[in-house]
Amino acid sequence: MEKKYPMLPTQVSPAMQPPACPPCPPCPPPQQLSPAMMPPQQVSPAMMPPQQVSPAQVGPTQMEAPVVSPTQQNVQENIINHIVPHIHPTNTTIVNTHVFKHQHFFPQTTNVVNQAVNQEFICGPGPVAPAMMPPCPPPCPPPCPPRPKCWF
């Protein structure tokens, strides 16, 4: 917040006025000066000596040069919020691994084979005459029941 100074009063009481200055000594004779070195021709009322007044009278109010105090420094703090987005990306890779487990089987089967073996005997001449020999059993298709053996 800024501070404001009160306005200077336009009138000063006689008790506050400074004492009158003694008369100035006479000026030295003028010297020859170049126009650039010449003093200004106009004089401001602040540069004029105060007028002599008697104590019983109040003269016109004189405006003095202002007294300027050093500049007072004020600090006004402004807070400005800033949003800075920070992005942290993440990627997930899903790896599907297919595992093939090869199982080897060796099934074993059993086959049964029934074989028939045929033996043929020739019942022919021998020490006995063929007419006297008993006949051989007739052949039969498999499976054959047990056959009687030939007698020789």
TrEMBL record:
One Pfam family named in its UniProt record: Spore-coat_CotD
Top-level division of the source organism's lineage: Bacteria
Name under which the protein is recorded: Spore coat protein
